[in-house]
């Protein structure tokens, strides 16, 4: 018989794969969302730190330029800062609010973007304030960089979850599904009652697959013993049937079996000789016809049948058969 194939939603391997991938997808979404938020926060902080580091790097130069009121120097420094893609505009102001230098996009110095302000102290007197450095961040660029880094991190997390799910699926298929399929195929190919047994691979000897194989072998052993016992009993019954059939057929006493309704079920050749009818003719008699056809007083036979059934014991009597010719014939009958 051809081995059935597991298809569709009945496949344990398919259901496991779907469960793993759904779980991995949920974990990937959660991990990606967390990674995106964390990556964006870190990227924004990193961009702001980079701009602050640039401001610190040029702070001494700006202090000297502001102290010397050197507009050319201040403008060069402002232009250099404005070239950074994270900075939208740079403004250097004097303490009285005058603009000493300005660089960047039109109107960006006065509106839009996050503002980073640092005071400019005198290079010779820390207590004297000369002005301030005001840097307007390019928020669009900063946000784009943060989004890119966040998306990259989120994609990496999602890819890692998907890869882990694939590895789990392949491992489960290799360690669980394939051994079970091979075990089922081997069981199907075995002959019932044979001495064949499943072999336990060394790498499965101590795990659940090994326990399953051991249980299957125990069942095969029990089945073999049961079949051997059944065959032995069948042989004994057949031998006894042959002995009883020989006794039944060769007995000098007429032996017959009637149904509850009085129809002849079986009888030995002696019955046929005594009655004078063939077994085919006797079996062709209808219900209760056998008793009326064979015995001179069938009501006595029916009475004996009822008495034997009621008492659960054998009832015997001498009964006269239907007369054939002038001679009367009697038999001793046990029911």
TrEMBL record:
Regions crossing the membrane: 161-181
Signal peptide location: none
Name the UniProt record assigns to this protein: PAS domain S-box-containing protein
Keywords on record: Membrane, Transmembrane, Transmembrane helix
Residue stretches making up the PAS domain: 240-284
Record GO cellular component, one term: membrane
Source organism per UniProt: Roseateles saccharophilus (Pseudomonas saccharophila)
GO process annotations (BP): signal transduction
Residue span, HAMP domain: 174-228
Keyword Membrane: yes
SUPFAM superfamilies: PYP-like sensor domain (PAS domain) (SSF55785)
Cited CDD domains: PAS
